[in-house]
Write a structure and sequence with these properties.
By secondary structure, this protein is mainly α. It has one domain: Up-down Bundle (Four Helix Bundle (Hemerythrin (Met), subunit A)). Helix content is 80%, strand content 0%. It is built from five helices and no strands. Helix 2 runs antiparallel to helix 3. The two termini are 27 Å apart. The mean pLDDT is 94.
Length: 117
């Protein structure tokens, strides 16, 4: 996981507004753990339609904050759930997504503080 944040997309869509970037990062940091928990629960329950739907909602958020590798993992999970393929790999994919998010969390929190001051 690259510790350097790539917030170029957020900077572009917000016109470089620190306040808007901070708000979007705060929402990402606040909402993503619940979404990941839902994803994990849906995989355990074998609810592939719910896995697909949750992954579909979650996928762009990782792209917005420059976590392209994690975005690709979520896209892979969405595809596997939609096609009901390689179901045995889904728990491993969810764990990788969670690990990447948790590893990046401190960087996001630092960036929020930097932009807020």
């Amino acid at each position: 996981m690259n510790s350097e944040l790539d917030l170029s997309y957020l900077e572009e869509v917000t016109g470089g507004s620190s306040e808007m970037i901070v708000e979007m990062l705060r929402l990402f940091v606040k909402d993503t753990p619940d979404q990941l928990s839902n994803l994990e629960k849906n995989v355990k329950d074998g609810d592939w339609d719910a896995v697909r739907a949750e992954a579909h909602k979650l996928k762009p958020t990782f792209q917005y904050v420059g976590m392209d590798d994690t975005h690709m993992l979520v896209a892979d999970l969405e595809t596997k759930a939609r096609n009901r393929e390689q179901i045995e790999r889904m728990p491993e994919l969810v764990e990788s997504i969670k690990r990447n998010f948790n590893e990046a969390l401190t960087s996001f929190e630092i960036k929020i503080k930097e932009l807020s001051s």
